[in-house]
Amino acid sequence: MSYSKEYLQLLDSRYLIMARTQKAALKGIEGGFLPEAAFITKGINVRSLFEEPYELMELDRLLAKPDMPFEVTLRLAQVCERLTRNVDKELALFGAESLNALEVRYVQKIQKLKKGEPSTSARPLAQAQLELALIYETRPALKRFYLAEAIGTLQNLWALSGRQKQDLALWVPLHLEAGLLQEAESSLREFLLETPQDSEVYFWLAKVKFAQRDYLEVMTILAFLQDHGGNAELHKAYRFWLGEAPGVA
Amino acid sequence: MSRILSEPRKFFSGVPDIVLLVGLVMLLNALWPSDPGFLFWYGTPYFVPALVVTPFRRPFIATLALLTGILAGFLIMPLVTNSLSLAYGRHLADVFRVSGIPLAFLFVSELFFHIQLKNQRSSLLGRLKRQVKQSSRLKRKADSLERVNRVLEERLVAQTDSITLLRGNLKKLATFNLPQALEGILEMLAVFTEMSAGSIWTYQKETGKLLPVAVRGERVSAIPPEGLDMDQTIAGYVFRNGRPFSLRMLLHDQEFTGLATMDFLMIYPLHAHGNVWGLIVIERLPFERYSYYTESILEIIISLVEPYLSDILEYERLYQGQEVDQVTQLPLVTQLVKNLDSTATKDLRTSSLALIVLEIVNFEVLAQRWGREKLKKLFLVMREKWEDALEMKVKVFHYKEENQLALLVPGLDQDGVSFFCLRLLTLIQEAELSLEGEVVPLEVIVGFGSATGPVSPEQLMREAENLLEFQRPV
Known about the structure:
Distance between the termini of chain A: 44 Å
Helix content of chain B: 55-70%
Order of helices and strands of chain B: HHHHHHHEEHEHEEHHEHHEEHEEEH
Oligomer: heterodimer
């Protein structure tokens, strides 16, 4: 556990006790025995998961949270994956068990969603399948399997209720991860036939074209987005591609 | 909470209750038909309903109960029993004179009591409502703070490009193992630029081509096995000119026309000792990460790794000098002297340098038990322990005698080197080095010399040897 400078100073000068749990820290603050920093130190992890040496207590605490956002879950899985390669067998076992716990959590979530009504549970199901595929980054066979499952889930949904633009945020990353660039492009082109000026569809197309290494096309799309509603970040990207110095409006 | 706030059951609230109470008294009165209204009783029971109702209900209901009681007892009952007469009226007046005032007092007191009770109750309810509101506000506030805490934690936990992580990754480069360091550089790039494929290339003198020496991720394009041409590829151009390349340059610069890109997104020269030593090649990036940010972070990382890379390559050159010990493969004392010479002329103008000489005093005794070769290999184990535990770059050499090892540590002054030696001895003690499953009882002494500014290698070595001399057992 790394303590903030302020916390250590306060402990050094006025406070004689150190809370062991979040609850105790909160009570200490209420009673005026501890500084507010005590709760921050005990209540939240104030360092990156990747920072070495790894804080096993913190990993364990985060692992116990059932509703972590995917970003944190992915980082946690990456750290656990690294731990499995540790020379210390106990640490490696801890890493493997933690990784397994994360995977089981996702598999159970997927199974539960599969039993739900397709019209409402298909999107969360495809999302969970994509997330699990990304967690399986180092195991290509499993990654491919879950990517294919997620693509199938979205295809079934589209067969049931028609193609939706909101699904592109899942559809394109799934195809990019699976390396199915041609398929992703053709679906986007079909969307563009329906909505030829849609900047969101063009943004996804730029991503696909970048992965296909068609940089001239990327430039063309960015130029189009410059005039047709792309956001400030995309305008900045366009200036970057043009070779303008950063900060030039 | 809802149970507390819900109204209790209301008694004597309506006319039916009052009629029932008064009816009970009338029934009682029916037992004494000769005394309608209980006039012979100086406290007529017809007042009782009003007295019972008053503490619990509003003044209006209490007054209604009083009037109903009076009406029922002193008008309806005499009418029903056919006793309403002048004599009855006089008797009634007598009774009121005697008991009316106390009863009125009682009634008014009860009314006041009731009003006070009601005020207390409403004030209590008001406080309770305020508390409930406050607690609900606090709960909302606590929930918001919890959400904020959570977001803060998620951001901190999931961050991959913090300055502390950069420092941690740089510390890992403080090794003399080149492949490990190159792998570390690629890992750092993967974390900070999110590249999913990248590599480090160097120039091979034998073939005159560029070849990858470290690779991360899945290769994007097919690379000829003999390597990349120096003249026909952009990578070669970057190596020759020391200028970075980013694919966007292809769209508006002419200088790369006719050169093969090999589908590389970015190629940056990697410097050591101020010269281009190799190339960092970014092969695959997410679309959003191909930006000013990635280009600048790449430049920062390259400038930060340069000193580490220079040291590693210098150490590699020492090994390639062939003047190494046959058993340990560590450079010999001649290499140390050469190194001291070059360091003294180059680096000592700006920073300090320390030479530490370690000596195993009981080497001969231990050699009889385990043999000289095995014992010398312990030096390698020692070096591994230091590399793991110390966060400093240490060059290790054999010294003049077989039982001596020299360490060249930059950036330590007189005090720094004393503490460093203490730490070194502690590490050797704690390591409990063993051979054939048995701990080797090493007796180690340390001598050192340090210098800031120009100094001859001989002087440094003499200082260290003098200190060793003092410590040797007579």
